[in-house]
Structures are given as C-alpha cells and as structure tokens.
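Running log. JK asked me to keep both predictions on one page so they can be read side by side. First protein, sequence followed by its tokens:
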Amino acid sequence: MEIEHKYYHDAPEKGEKKWKHYALEFFMLFLAITAGFLTENLRDHMVEKERAKEMAVGLYYELAEDSIQISKAIERKKLLISVLSSLIETLDSVEVKKNTTLLTYYQASFLMEVDMPVPANANLDQLINSGSLRYFKNRKLVSDISLWDNIISIKFAERQETDQKRLIEEIKAVNRVFRPVLIDSMRSITFNNLFNGINLNSDIREAFAKTPAKLITYNVEYISEVIGWASERKRNAIVRSTSFLPAQLELIRNLMKDLNGEFDIKKD
C-alpha cells in the first residue's frame, strides 16, 4: 500500500491560497541560505581564529629569543662600561705616553663597534597587519603588543641610526690618535669578546698591559676628542643597561606571560 506524501513545495491545488504557499517556500529558501551563510561565516571565523593563535605562538617564541638577546646586550653594556672607564683613565692621565700599552689599543678598538640589539618583528608585523588582534580577548595584551611594535619601529630604530652616525665620527677620532694597523689587529679580539660578553682572560690582559705601545700623536685636542666619544659611549651604555633595555625586557616578559595566558602556549 503506497502512502501519498504531500510536500509544501508542490503546486497549490485548486482552491488553496497561492500566497501562503509561496510565502512558505520563500521562508524555507531564506532559512537555507541564512543557515549556509552562518555556517560558512562560522567556519571562516574559526579558521581565522586558529590562524591568530598560530601567529600568537610565533610571536611568543619570537619574544623569547628577543629576551635572550636583550639580556646578553645588557651584559655587553656592562663590559663596555668597564673597558671604556679604563680607556678614559689611561688617556686622561698626565703620563699618557708611559701608560699607553696594547691594552689601551684593545680598549680603544671597542669604539669601532656598535652594539644595539634588533628585536625580531616578522610575526609581530604579520599579526598586526592581518587584523588578527581582534580575536584577542585581553585588551591590555593588544595594547602592549601595539606598544612593543612602536618601540621596535621607533626607539630601537632611532638608537641604531644614532649609533651608526656616531660610529663614523668615533672611527675618525680613534684613527687620528691610534695606529690603524694595530687597532685593526685588536678588532677581531674585541668583536669576539664584546658579542660573547667576555673580557680578556687574566693572562692575556697582563701580557697586553705589559707591552708598551705608542700613539700616532699625543696632541691634547685629539686625545680629548677620543675621551669625549668614549665618555659619550659609556654614558649611553649606562642608560641602556640600567634603564632602556631592562624596561623592554620587562615588557617582553609581560607579553609572553599574557600570550601564554590567552592561548595556553606552553600546553601546546
């Protein structure tokens, strides 16, 4: 026995009101389109949110590396302060001819290197430019991420540019007083020690300190110029190691903490 089914989308029989039939059909079509739209929109939303998390994880590990580099930079600044203090003391002494040694050349070669850490920003730029920050619930985190982006693009960049400009003048001043060949021979040692945050071992230091070395000139004006640049570099190192860099390190650590709280990164 067959059962006859009556579907709402069948054409209305004689006597039925056509407008009810078409209204119902329109309503069902509207529901289908709306449901499809909402489903697709929800799927896109979930994909974008997952992508935001991926970028947040990338930013987290980017910040972790930045924190290491900035911590090392702080230690390098402390080394620089110590080295330049000794250089200034030697050059400013009344017996500068007698006190100048290979150690003095080693110390002066620090003026021919720049050391400003450059934070990574690949994941940071992607996160900001993609608009994915809208998926972050923690508004303070969003604000701090924008602040960090501003610090990288302005404060770090300004200091790096300033250092490069000063370096040109510092090299000129050093080469007017110190023998370039001897300075250059020291730079490989300086570079290695500076970027590894280590000073000369005691034996080498003692050997350098016992080896007399002459300057090109003992002109007071030229020597004073070197002292001036060394003093300026030392002041910058003090400010950066005690104020600027520690402040950025604290911001980074807070960002990492908040990112982990928002996305459970360590659990992943």
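And the second, directly underneath as requested:
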Amino acid sequence: MNKTLILLLISIAVSGQSIFRLEGKVNNASEDQLQITLYRNWVQPPEDYILKLDSLGTFHFNTMLSETAYMDLNYGLNGLLFQIIEPGDKLFLKADELSFYESLSISGDGSEKWIYYAEQRDFVSDNQLSRFYELLKTDPDIYLDSVSIQEKREIDLLQRHKEKVGESFFLLRRADIIGKMNSLRLDYYLATKNTENVFGFFHKDLVSSSLQNRSFEYGSFVERLLNAFNSTRSRNNRYSLTDEYNFIIYCFEKGWIGKSIAERLAAGQISNYLELEGFSSENESIIRDFLNFSTNQSYTTYLEGKIQNLKAREIGSKAPAFELTDVENRRLTLKSLKGKSVLMVFWASWCEPCKEDLKYLPIIKNYFKSASRLEIVNFAVDTPEDFANVVSLSLAAGKAVRINPGSSFLKEYGVYNIPGYIFLDKNGNWVNIEPISPSIDEGRALIKQLEQYLK
C-alpha cells in the first residue's frame, strides 16, 4: 500500500472512542514537516501522517482511539519510535532542533508515559544491543544471565513509574520488555542451533494471551519463535498460505501459543497474501476457516472488507451504482457522472489530515476545469451535526455529499480508511491507479498523476 496515503479507519467514528491529541512546537526548525506513523494493531497497515509546521514551528494532530496504540514520531534524523499512546491523551511537545532529545519536553494529560520513555531512553544506551551480540559471540555462557539482569533492571524502572503511567500502559510496556528480552534469548538458541524444543525454553504465562497479541515486541518475538521452530521441520523456505496458516493453528492446538496471538499471526499472513496475490479460490477455504476461527472483530472486519474490495474492484469492471443527495439537495448518481473521469474523496470533520488534503483540492479542480475532463466528488463521513460546521470545506472543490458512518455505500466501494481516494473512468469503471494524497507537493503530484491518465 502506498505509504504516502494517509489512513484513518472509518470504524473509529462510532461511539466508545476518545480523542488522542498531540500539539507541539519545534524551535530553530529547518525542516517544515514531521511524520507520525500510527499502529492501531498489527494486522491493518500503519497510518502515515505528514504534519506541516507553520512559520512558528508549531504543529497539531488528533485522531480517535478505542484502546492503546503505538506511535512513531519522526522529525528529520530524530525519532521517537513505538511510543504507547492511549485514548484521552492530550499532549504538548516542545523541542529544539539543534538539541532535539536533550531539549525535548512533554506536558499535558498522559505526559507521564513520555517522561518514563525519556528516562528509559537514557537508561538503555544506544549500543546496548551491539554489546549483547558481542557477548553472544565471545562469552555465550554468561549471555543469558546478562539478558535476565537487563530485563530486571528495565522492569524495575517501569515499576517505579507504575502509579503515574497507569495499569494498562504498565502491563503493555512490561509485555514489550519481556518480548524484547525473549527475542535476545532466542538469539542464543539460534546461535547454538538448539531449536528443536525451543518452545519449552520460554515462560509464556508471564504475559497474557491478549497482551501478547497487542504488544509490539512480544508479538514480534512469537513470530520469530515460530519461524525458528518451523525451519527445523522443513528445508523448504517457500510456503503457501495453506502451509503458513495450518502451522499457526497447529501451534495453537498444541498449546504452544495462545489464541489471541494465533489470530494476529494468521490474520497477518492472510493480509500479506491478499496484498501480494489478491483473492483466489485456491485460498478461499483457508480464509473462510480463519473467519470462523477468529473472535477478533477488528481482524475479521478488516479482512472481509479487503476481500470485498478486491472482488469488487476488478479493473475495467463497473463500479457499484448509487443514488445520493448532495449538500445542495441535488440528486447524484453514478450514471449522472458519466462522461467525465471521477475523483472520489472520502474524509471526515474530525480528521485533521483530511482537512489538510481538502485545502489543495481547489488547485486540482481549477487545473482541469477548462478541459472539463474531471469531476471531483467529496464524501464526508460524518454525522449531520459535525458536517454542518465544516460544510464549506467540502464545497470548496467539486460536489459535496454527506455519508453516514457504516453506510452500505462505503462497504460497496471498499472504503475502510480515510482520507480515501478512488478514481473512476468516464464510463464509471474502476481504474488501476491509486490517487496520491492531494497535499503531497501541494497538489502537483496528484495533478501529474491524473494528467498522465487523462491523456
């Protein structure tokens, strides 16, 4: 999936969500943007956001969260990776580009987690991993003891912050630490070629199955563990989806891994295969088996949507017919758009990156206006109340329509992420291009892409 597209799940527009807000300022800023990558879970693709700094070096970002998530923040060569964030956090970040980490300060609701991370970053030196790997080569007999000592030190540090960071953060971060250290232990067994009974070397009960599923580090460790064990069973490193899926289910049935982590790994494999090979009857029975096996609604909903999207979007085939009413109370149908290529834009009032994209749509509209070759239709995925406050944004370029979250129209068009973009030809057929985000290069990149097709 094109990383320049900004993704935001439509499912977060329902009740039970809370806003996560991050604002900040970079002093002495030479870069005019920073990037945020949001990981809601480990099956759906991460969401990339490019945030522009204004003339004062300030920026802001908000999204809706239903549970803890992970976030990367990158500014130039500086980065804060896999930070755990929670619904309701309202943070203000301040830093100086000339001494980013030394000057970094976080305030606001939820800032205690970032204060912990800052201390943990000082506590764990940059060359720690290289020292471990050197020790593994030179003195493997004390390697495992050294890993256990480091694990205790990191958990002790986390324990000192427990009251301030909260229980949910504490447990998930603890799972990350254990997963990271278990991965180092696995390196020892791989180096000594002692992987035949590798599952017995780890105490999986230290971390609950649900936390194994949600934890970045622990989930990565389990995936490496299965790969290590699987390599002892066959010399063939090329597996089909059936092989990969059946092996994960086999490990679950043996009691080596819990159901939650089995769902995560299996859903990840299926998603990867769909991305690379598309949907096929050959893999349909495996996918159907997983949908019956899994109780994780976010995984099953995502995969079902992805399959629907792949089936529906056969290039050259007719897009689904629709009949809607735009904000000026005019009838809008797929048939009424015939004769022009159509750029469909999906956004929401609470989505700041969406609003950034909308700013550049008038540039796209004006560029193609004289030739009358392109129609832009904006679909706001909003409640009536929310949309009423920002209707002018949508009217700035093209036709404007409000769509209820969860609408069958969205499912038929395979729209599960926003901002989202679809391109149809003048006959209302799917076109094999993935439109570039309008805010990239201030609209010029999308103009070039559309112009090449329209020629």
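Observation for JK regarding the second prediction: The first strand starts at residue 18 and ends at 27.
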